[in-house]
Amino acid sequence: MTRQRTPLAFGGSGLVRGTGQLVTEPASLTDLRNVMLRPGRALRRGGLTSRATLASETAIIGVHPVRSQGVGACLSYRESTREVRLWLVAADGISTLIGVVWTLPATAAFPRVSMVDVFNRLVIAHDEPRYGDRQPTRVWTPGVAGIVDLVAQLYVGTGAVGAQPVRFRGVTRYLSYLVGWGYGSEKPADVPVPGDLPDGDRPEVVRLSLPDDPLKLRPEHYFLAGSRGDAVLGCFEAGGVLAVRKASESHEIFGFDRPSFGIRPIDPLFGVANPRLGVVVGGVNYFWSLEGPRMASGGASRDMALPLDLRGPAVEAAASTDPSDAFACYDPSERAVLFVFGQWAFVWHLEAEAWSYRQYGTRLFAGGILYRDTATTGLGPTASAAFTTAVTPTPAGDAAGATVSVTATVAGSLIGGEVLELWARPTSGGTWTRVQVTAGVTTGANVITSTATLLHGVPYTLAVRLALAAIGQGNALGSNPDDWAATTRGAATTPLPPIALRTAPGGVGDHFFTAFESGAAPVALTGRGAVAIVLTMPPLAPQAQLLYDVRHRPAGSSDPWVELAGVPFDLGGSIGRTVLVPTDAFPNLDRELEVRVRTADLTGAWVVVSVGAYFGPRRPDATIVTVIPDLAPPRYQVEVVASAEPAFSVDAGQFDVERLVGSTWSAEPPFGAGWSLTFAGASSTAIGGANDPGVLQHRARSRVTIGAIEYVSGWRS
Amino acid sequence: MSTAPSLFLGGRFSNRLLEANSGNTDDGAAFRLRLRTNRIAPNGTSETATVSEAWLTLTYEAAQTLTVRLLADELVVATRAVSLPAHPALRQRVVPVPFSVPLLVAGVERARVHPRGTWFQLEVESDGTAELAIDGAELLWDAAGRR
What we know:
The complex is a heterodimer.
Chain A: E1 4-8, E2 29-33, E3 35-38, E4 41-44, E5 48-53, E6 59-66, E7 71-78, E8 83-89, E9 95-103, E10 113-118, E11 121-126, E12 138-140, E13 147-149, E14 151-152, E15 164-165, E16 170-174, E17 177-183, E18 201-210, E19 213-224, E20 234-238, E21 241-245, E22 250-254, E23 262-267, E24 278-281, E25 284-289, E26 292-296, E27 302-303, H1 316-320, E28 327-331, E29 336-341, E30 344-349, E31 354-359, E32 364-372, E33 384-391, E34 405-411, E35 419-426, E36 433-438, E37 444-449, E38 459-468, E39 471-472, E40 489-493, E41 500-503, E42 512-513, E43 530-536, E44 546-554, E45 562-563, E46 569-570, E47 578-582, E48 591-599, E49 607-614, E50 622-628, E51 635-641, E52 655-661, E53 664-667, E54 676-680, E55 683-687, E56 698-706, E57 709-712
Parallel strand pairs in A: 42-49
Antiparallel strand pairs in A: 3-4, 6-7, 7-8, 8-9, 10-11, 11-12, 12-13, 14-15, 16-17, 17-18, 18-19, 20-21, 21-22, 22-23, 24-25, 25-26, 26-27, 28-29, 29-30, 30-31, 33-34, 34-37, 35-36, 35-38, 38-39, 38-40, 41-43, 43-47, 44-45, 44-46, 44-48, 48-49, 50-51, 52-53, 52-56, 54-55, 56-57
Chain B: E1 3-11, E2 16-20, E3 33-37, E4 47-60, E5 64-72, E6 75-84, E7 91-98, E8 101-105, E9 108-113, E10 116-117, E11 120-126, E12 132-146
Antiparallel strand pairs in B: 1-2, 3-11, 4-7, 4-10, 4-12, 5-6, 5-11, 8-9
């Protein structure tokens, strides 16, 4: 029988745990973890990358966009001081501390928050069920210093105390109204009627602001959702209504203005399990009820939990996580709704309409959408920065990158939280890069120094600006400094670092050894006319064309330098390779040598490395010992073979010959005393001998004396 | 005007703002991809089958190792580590994964046979950090008679 095949298409149906085996598709899965679902396939999901670190904070408890300004807001909690802080963050990681939102009492639980941006304001509510610990609802207006209480006079009866801070448990937006819930009024306990309670803690009350001003609340603009004391947990605008969800029931507020507004119950069974476990995507409210996930776009909700079989075999997410920490959010890049329970998440893939699990490497607590590549509005510093001067210090070593210090002059009023940004791009072209951000800006001169990200020997165009959360001042908007005011820009050329030179292996210190002296030439040193120089420098920009030249003169002299090549060599940015410097034109022996490197555009000064150079005689190529048998006592001859040395005067004194006696080398008589020397063509031949027929091991070396200095080569056996 | 929305997440015990779908780890911690199919009975619910091989259709580039498990009647009967060599470009490839189990007689392996059962499941797991897409699989099976 032919072997049969059954295809399994991964991912298409997502998780299907609760369906009988005879009706499930082969493409359905019982475990589907850390994937992105596409039709018929599953991809490994992307990771989580840290974009900003909020110094000294314990946790991040809220992320929310401020859409009117194209930036993001982030709330953090610092456990040591019990402070909740508000940060302005850009998607590229730049964060600016706006201020302290609340300092919680010692009795307060770990904070949970509710945020909404409305009418160019960010409204923040303390989602604390215990009214005694709940903090006032706060408002931050972008571009305005300080975070203020949302205040209103919501009680006008006997004992009215005037406008007081409102303490909503949650806030959201419906049409053009700010919606807050969980707060009644500042009405005190009614003294004339003992036992009458204060009116602040009214968990079933939903209030709406005036339509044209979210900060104006009227006493009579409220709804009572269901029975008193049964807390409203979340409100979600979906399907043209405002769904008001409690733990196990839902209502909806319908209408569009005060005469048409109304409230009615829509679901006596299903609500939202906690205030943060709901999200609205595409007009549909996805929320996690006490029986699992559901969706609604106005009116009745629909069950989404059946494929998950939450009450079936253990699901780690449901079993191991405190649901009070759970939250829902929308992931726009995956088109997915996430119900996150600590390290676990149930993911509803909108395109595939299928579920998967997700297991994160860290325990999550809050999520929200931030925006990249933001243009700007009126948010940003009121002061401005102008480029004044730039200093480019010589890098400490060739491993260090180039830096530039720019002095910028800040003029105008600072509102707090501004940062000074330094941007750079190679003058010859390329993209602008923000190379440094510095806080603590003051009016007047400020110095900002780039981190070691600049290339050496490159002319840069630089720009500075003041910014708040990556939004620049009015004359420096956007991320293209070419569009900024001309006063923000300047230029500087980064210097070359000290150039580390080293010889080919076998060299010592700063001496160059010629091929003649190199015992084990590692590179193809050609003839006697090359010096191997390895130039070692950090990576350079392709556009950083370098020139180098080599010049020389007699050591210790003040003779004019003789440039070796006549014109500089173009290294083309290739540093770190071996350069063979031809030395055929060198007079031999002791010379001062300079290697100089500079940028090809000649804007930088020469970087000079001076060394002494020795180009001495080469070691003999071989020694040949031959016994002369017809002499008595037997004699032998030693033949020293060396290449022609036209630059040297060849004579008998050019070679030393030693013989091995026992374990000691001793000199043979010098040439000329019983020795003979012939020189022909490409070799020198020394012939000599001694009355010691038992010793046949000799060695020889080259030697030459120039003035008072004697130069010798290595031995050749 | 705002563009390019991205999901950002905050941690209960961390002060780092994390961008979702970015990078290959969760702020440095590796995570595991796992897929386990529902049960299928290729030869019908009253018959058995032997599964000799699975052909995985994968799209990947970097070298990585997968763990592939075959479950027969809800028991893991074969586990294979599949090493995927690196390729110069992200491309789709078909990878065969043979399955066999030892036949033991008095504790001594006498032969190897293909796993036999009625209900089969395939599980694929990767704990690497490299990009991977699982486009599907094929089970190769032979009818093996009544259970």
